[in-house]
Amino acid sequence: MTRTAFEAVQAARSEQKITTRALINGVVDHFFECHGDRNASDDAAVIGGIGELNGQPVTVIGIQKGQTLAQNQQCHFGCPEPEGYRKAQRLMQQADKFGRPVVTLINTPGAFPDVHAEHHGQGEAIAQCLLTGAQIKVPYLSIIVGEGGSGGALALAGGDEVWMFEDSIYSVLSPEGYASILWKDAHRVAEAAEQMRLTAQDLYEDGIIDRVVDEVNDVAKLQQLRQQIAEKITTLSALPAAERLAQRHARFRKF
Amino acid sequence: MMNNRFEAPTPEQLAQRLDKIPDDVMVRCPVCQTTFLAHDAIDKTCPECGYGLRLGARERIMMVTDQFEEIDREVTIPARFNDLQYRQKISQAKKKTQQNESVVTGFATIGRQACGLAVMDSRFIMGSLGSATGEKLTRLFEQARQRQLPVVVFTTSGGARMQEGIHSLMQMTKVSQAVSELQAAGLAYLVVLTDPTMGGVTASFAMQGDIILAEPHTMVGFAGRRVIEQTIKQTPPADFQRAETLLEHGFIDTIVPRPQLRQTLARLLTWHAGGTQ
Lengths: 255, 277
Hints:
Chain A is an alpha/beta fold. Chain A has 12 helices and 8 strands.
């Protein structure tokens, strides 16, 4: 690949990118959406529910960007509120209870930064998601589909394996933020992107993620992804629960 | 020449007089703006509003523990971070704090109760969460589990360490797993939020305690005020992200003034000595 890191950033943010909902509908059959955090509200930025993968029930949780302005106002351009993370946490615990594997699909610039989110414990919600991800005994696969922005993405990226789409990025903050914090100049974004090693390929080379999967832009690629997920879940399911959890912990312990 | 007491001093004379006063005699509270004599401040707290001035890790340890034995003192940033500017920042921070990282870890007794103890230090690159910070915290949780001891962590941090990029983010998951393993062994994890605790630290181990305490007026949050103002164009209220607001919204157990912290921790540790699993 000869493209620059900043081109990768633009590709990750592209409006042509498959939506999380379309991905879910393509990866599992009979998707049954579960709304709400059972506490305060239902965050449109996080879609979660149960579907079938090769006849086996799995829990799928995704972070969704909108396609229209109205959708984006609802889901804050894919930035979850604390209620979204609490919904994710609830569904992970539910999956654990019923022995269903968990697949997360992540596409978010980051957790939503507003007064409401802070008053409702954005930090606490992400912290509890991380803790739950460290506890669930079922197979847990995390896939970064587009943007993987900071703690808001990490909350759902604690899987036994972490994969990334070819056109996706994953970083501690946006390249714009990085440039403005470190160099006080948000215009040096291309340079920041280069330095940050945030592309799927960079992160694979650095051992942060386990696999780079093809960009899903047609039905054949969607089928291929579905197949890859199914195979991985089969492999992970074959391990005893305690060993699977130990391997997950070892995966992150090395960092 | 004798001073004329009835004439106003010249600016030069004023400057000379001020030079004779040491800088640290008077302190202004950053929360309530009251000026007070440093000498009058018990445990470096504002006599007016109870805000605790920021402390270095050593100072804090002296204040709350009876005994402390440090572990992993030598742990420092991994060699792969070779950016010159970052390396310089690290050496400055080391010089300033006489520590190798933004957290000091070890085993302590507080009111005769043994525990694992970690104290973060905001003077070390704003207490940011680097790989070595995460490693020291993780090792502390692991060793405390082996020794069957509860853990107390004093947090203060600006959040993730930008210079370490994604590796900083990974520490959040790594430490969370260590917390999870400690808690699974039935051992208590107590958090004391101190000013300021922000970003990735709030979004991981700071908010995972079985019991979460905070010092008065401590700032605790995920997204900073400026980020919110610039991204969403919202102006947060004055009491935004303060311990009192978090208490009101149900995110911390209680606020403990600094002079009572040692006693409070000692009692909580008595109730949570040893594992249950």
